[in-house]
Design a protein that fits this description.
473 residues; mainly alpha; 23 helices
């Protein structure tokens, strides 16, 4: 007989998964897939012992996977766009001009702002990191700036734009699930996100001072520029390709068709501008671009991309979502969240608990979408009971869910960044300043009551009426 799963039982799969994950990653130095599979098996066994049959458990896994399918499609397209843009010379062109225009001392500030603007325009941190971010890594490394520092600046800028863009899937998801007007949600996030960016830019400005021209081997930069010029056709016309993708999404063309246009343009650039064969262009889409210039930095940066390079991320996403699907659809995650709610006795404590539990969901369920979906569902009634406006909840789940996903190596975001920028989460974490600062600001605001908005009496009456209408419908 199926029964409600208690907190003590529900926490077992998480404990097992985290223990196996820690041993596998730290001791064995292996990936997170197997620990998540072990966690999934443990969750399935617990659910079966609590009365769920195999068909229900299997359907729970499928529900989890279906939730991640949009992310899987984006992952695949980003792999294709990296391959086509490298093969088409677009990335090389951005790096070439970047090396000639951006000074090392201001590079971290510049790349943060560039990624912020692009991500704000297209609404996707992943697409920004997979395109502009890849080029930014090349420029930064050529200037002698440590790779984790460059990655942190790229991530900060990309997530600033993603968080505030009305085109962002996570922004729309957070506002939609909490029944908050999209632009009300975005305006409320400005209180934490803008100060977070300002702090990040100050830190990057301070860090960048040590990379002034006097401390950089300009001969290496000159050699990199020369190698790029010899290996690719460099033309400002190629910059029209990323600009086209940005304009399309700014015109509210959905991200998937916009990325497909970018892939096609990159493919044609490789064939008609770079003079590559159709076979080579198709190969770049499938297995990534291949080049041998003799320059280690250029070769390491440009031998990448393609569909095959994203299969690790795709498999990681699917495995993570089977685990999260069982936890959510069998009620285990609800039992855990309900236990957390007992500790949140005040409105201020509730907001802080939301931020912390979103981070915990990222760490345990390995997917930022779950860190938005589950708290939005579980905390909604508690916010109404405390007479808190829903925009407090929508902001808290973005601050604690969207932004902290990058710090978990086995989260799909951490895995994606590793596959695109080539830097492990533990390496770039200290430099992803925006992602570090914003959750802290959110908790400080919760504790002090700053910008925490209560429902007015009119809003309470309207909310009760809507609930009554829903019950009678």
């Amino acid at each position: 007989m199926k029964k409600e799963i208690s907190f003590k039982v529900a926490i077992i799969p998480l404990i097992v998964m985290i223990a196996v994950m820690a041993f596998t990653i730290v001791k064995l130095e292996q990936g997170p897939h197997i620990p998540l599979i072990v966690g999934t098996c443990t969750a399935a066994l617990v659910a079966w012992r609590c009365g769920f049959n195999w068909k229900e458990i299997e359907e729970s896994m499928y529900k989890g996977i279906r939730l991640a399918l949009p992310a899987v499609i984006i992952i695949i397209l980003v792999g294709l766009i990296i391959g086509s843009w490298i093969g088409g010379g677009i990335v090389a062109t951005m790096i070439y001009y970047g090396l000639n225009m951006i000074t090392p001392s201001f590079f971290l500030v510049s790349i943060t702002l560039i990624c912020a603007v692009v991500s704000l325009a297209i609404g996707s941190s992943w697409s920004t990191m997979g395109t502009i971010g890849v080029a930014g890594m090349g420029i930064g490394l050529s200037m002698g700036i440590p790779a984790p520092m460059v990655a942190g600046a790229i991530i900060s800028g990309a997530y600033f734009g993603d968080k505030l863009s009305p085109l962002s899937d996570t922004t729309n998801l957070a506002s939609g699930l909490t029944n908050t007007n999209l632009f009300v949600h975005i305006r409320h996030m400005l209180y934490t996100t803008v100060p977070g960016l300002v702090i990040a830019l100050i830190v990057y400005g301070f860090l960048g001072r040590r990379f002034g021209q006097s401390g950089v081997d300009t001969a290496d930069i000159a050699q990199t520029v020369r190698v790029l010029g010899e290996s690719f056709v460099i033309s400002p016309l190629l910059l029209l390709i990323p600009l086209t993708v940005i304009v399309l999404v700014a015109k509210k063309v959905p991200a998937i068709p916009a990325l497909i246009v970018g892939i096609l343009l990159g493919f044609m650039a490789q064939v008609f501008i770079q003079g590559g064969s159709v076979t080579d262009a198709v190969g770049a889409l499938q297995s990534g671009f291949v080049i041998n210039t003799g320059n280690d930095m250029v070769d390491n940066l440009f031998n990448r991309g393609g569909l095959d390079s994203m299969m690790y991320t795709v498999s990681m996403t699917i495995v993570a979502m089977t685990f999260g699907g069982i936890l959510e659809n069998t009620g285990m995650l609800k039992s855990i969240v309900d236990q957390i709610l007992k500790l949140a006795r005040s409105a201020r404590g509730l907001v802080a608990s939301t931020v912390v539990s979103c981070f915990a969901t990222n760490a345990t369920c390995s997917e930022q979408y779950i860190s938005i979906v589950i708290p939005a569902r579980m905390y909604a009634q508690a916010y109404r009971d405390h007479k808190l406006h829903s925009k407090n909840l929508s902001r808290a789940i973005e601050d604690g869910g969207t932004l902290t996903s990058v710090f978990i190596p086995w989260n799909t975001c951490g895995v994606f960044i590793l596959s695109t920028l080539g830097i492990h989460a533990f390496a770039y974490a200290p430099y992803a300043i925006l992602n570090l600062v914003v959750p802290i600001l959110s908790i400080i605001y919760a504790m002090t009551g700053f910008t925490i908005t209560k429902l007015t009496e009119a809003e309470l009456v309207q909310l009760r009426q809507e609930e009554e209408d829903t019950k009678t419908a």
